[in-house]
Recover the amino acids of this structure.
C-alpha cells in the first residue's frame, strides 16, 4: 500500500502546490482512506487515492 500512496502523492503534488505540512496532512488522509481497501492491488489503490483527493478537493 505504501507504494500506491507514494504514487498518489507524487501525482497530486504535480497538480496542487502544497507546503510540506499540507502534503503530510494529505498523505495521512489518503492513507486512512486506502486502509479501508487492504486487499486491492497497487494500481487500484493509486487510482482510488487520486479519485478520493479529487472528491474532497472541492
Amino acid at each position: 500500500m505504501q507504494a500506491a500512496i507514494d504514487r498518489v502523492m507524487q501525482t497530486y503534488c504535480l497538480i496542487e502546490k502544497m507546503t510540506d505540512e499540507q502534503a503530510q496532512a494529505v498523505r495521512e488522509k489518503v492513507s486512512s482512506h486506502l486502509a479501508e481497501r487492504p486487499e486491492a492491488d497497487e494500481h487500484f489503490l493509486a487510482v482510488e487515492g487520486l479519485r478520493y483527493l479529487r472528491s474532497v478537493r472541492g
Notes: The chain has one domain: 2-57. DSSP finds three helices and no strands in the chain.
